[in-house]
Amino acid sequence: MQTILGAGGATAIVLAKELNNYTDHIRLVSRKPARVNTNDELFPADLLKASEVEAAVAGSEVVYLTAGLEYNIKVWKRDWPILMRNVIDACTKANARLVFLDNVYMYAAEEIPHMTEHSKINPPSEKGKVRAAVQDMLLHAKSQGLQMLIARSADFYGPDVKNSPLSISVTDEFKKGKKAFWQLDALKVHSFTYVPDIGKSLALLGNTPDAYGEVWHLPTSSEQLTGKQFIEMIAAEMNVQPRYYIFTKWMMQLLGIFVPILRELKEMAYQYDRDYVFDSSKFEKRFSYKPVTYAEGIRQMVNG
Domain NAD-dependent epimerase/dehydratase, which positions (predicted)? Predict the structure, then answer.
């Protein structure tokens, strides 16, 4: 049996479909899980409650942690350590292998222009410090015998992905007849990982025994496009004018008084004031995997 903790998000839905290629017993775990495949087992659970996580993981061979928490630093500091401790303990007890879907927040700011699996860990943000601490928990558990791997993604996008930066700042605004916006500098390169590639590659990693014990960057197009080029590509696909404005730090600070999410984004702005290049060549070479191009991914995002 293979189990998804945090089922229901766009990535987890793709992952659930892909796991049909590897197992006929898939368990979907969330507060209110919904069936993706006809034979899915639905298991309601709160990942912040140790007993419920233990029950959800029991009998699993592979566990995928794709859960997200509210984008709020107070919530992250309070809940991520609890959630990860529950998952580690449950996987250890069940002798299950763990695949953790992670982001790049823990990398040092100077690593952002070319991120690899060996990039230095020195997070400049409070959210990054939480992610680094969670990674430390996993690496300690690995030293104690847990079979685990960390799969990292760049900022993500794709069809039916509501909280993607590309959706929030570009497609959603164009749909409203408004200008798109881009954080800080639209002339900087920025990598994005296509959600269907994330789901497919998580399933592949989870079912590759010798992939465990390592960090993997999930397949991401090596095309180096700037924010302006993304806006122009999306505008062309939507048949609208590529109008946009720059969302500056002072705008974040001012509007953050009224819009909580903007307060949360302010500390992550460093990822937009420089090139942001996510290198997934390790995964691509190991699995002979070709990531979706941005042209195709954006076509699917706009029309999917």
Answer: 4-211
